[in-house]
Design brief:
This protein is α/β, with parallel strands linked by helices and about 250 residues long. It has two domains: about 170 residues, P-loop containing nucleotide triphosphate hydrolases (Rossmann fold), CATH 3.40.50.300; about 60 residues, no CATH class. It is built from seven helices and ten strands. A hairpin with a 2-residue loop joins strand 4 and strand 5. The chain binds adenosine-5'-triphosphate and magnesium ion.
């Protein structure tokens, strides 16, 4: 389980206003959670803190009751931009986190190939990022995130730059991956429908600073289909979320 306990966070540079203040929330093991909130509200900041890239001023962030400051390799972070290295092959890109962790070379290769198979791109192993479409590159970035071996996956708007049809097929694909591996996924998105389609719960962040999170449950079984989104209850949830995001956008 992941837990934020009374967290306060201020960036040392820029405006010296807290982004998070006395913020507490939990994510249970194996859950699929989406975080929605207006632009600049602090979603990526939450990921940066979780991944140990920023130090908090108060409170603690814990995994299974242990402060993350004493832990390693507990999460894999897929940043907002696709960060494949253009001069490395697809396979070498996927191997990167394992090579940082100094995993045995043969094992790195074996796992990279296995993961590329899972995302349907094994025949691209020796190609370069420029040879792939945007959707394929996102699948490679996702394979790399999975290869890092952590149980907690942090995905920051992984599909936002893609066209609609590619996006919905990747959503279906991601849902299947999650149902197979049952890792914990925290997914940031601006797309309310995407959040509803994928997640068990939606965490709505708002306010400056963020002091609490409103949680909306998505009461739909898995595996989900797009037809389920037509359910009037789900339409109401969607409108409700859009209203929330609009009001918070106006307040900021
Ligand atoms: N490295 C930094 N130093 C100083 N301020 C920062 C830094 N990174 C982000 N901020 C500020 O912190 C606030 C929250 O930014 P953050 O990137 O977490 O928002 P976000 O919710 O992810 O937005 P978006 O939806 O546009 O990605 C913004 O006001 C931003 O300007
Ligand atoms: Mg962001």
């Amino acid at each position: 389980m992941l837990e934020f306990k009374n967290v306060k966070f201020i960036y040392k540079s820029g405006v010296k206003e807290p982004i998070l203040e006395n913020l507490s929330f939990k994510v249970e093991d194996g859950e699929f959670i989406s975080i929605v909130g207006s632009s600049g509200s602090g979603k990526t900041t939450i990921f940066r803190i979780l991944n140990g890239l920023e130090d908090i001023q108060e409170g603690s962030v814990e995994i299974d009751g242990q402060d993350i400051r004493g832990l390693k390799n507990y999460s894999s972070y897929m940043p907002q931009k696709d960060l494949l290295l253009p001069w490395k092959t697809i396979e070498k890109n996927v191997m990167l986190p394992m090579s940082i962790q100094k995993v045995d070379k043969d094992l790195q290769k074996e796992r990279a190939i296995e993961m590329l198979k899972q995302v349907g791109l094994e025949e691209y192993a020796n190609k370069y990022p420029k040879d792939l479409s945007g959707g394929m590159r996102q699948r490679v970035a996702f394979a790399r995130t999975l290869c890092a071996g952590a149980n907690l996956l942090l995905l920051d708007e992984p599909f936002s730059a893609l066209d609609y049809i590619t996006r919905i097929s990747l959503q279906e694909w991601l849902m299947k991956q999650w149902l197979d591996v049952k890792k914990t996924i925290v997914f940031i998105t601006h797309d309310v429908e995407e959040a509803i389609f994928l997640s068990e719960k939606i965490y709505v962040v708002s306010g400056r600073p963020i002091t609490d999170i409103e949680i909306k449950e998505v009461d739909l079984p898995y595996p989900r289909t797009r037809e389920m989104l037509l359910d009037p209850r789900i339409q109401r949830l969607k409108e409700d979320l859009i209203d929330k995001l609009r009001t918070t956008e106006e307040e900021e």
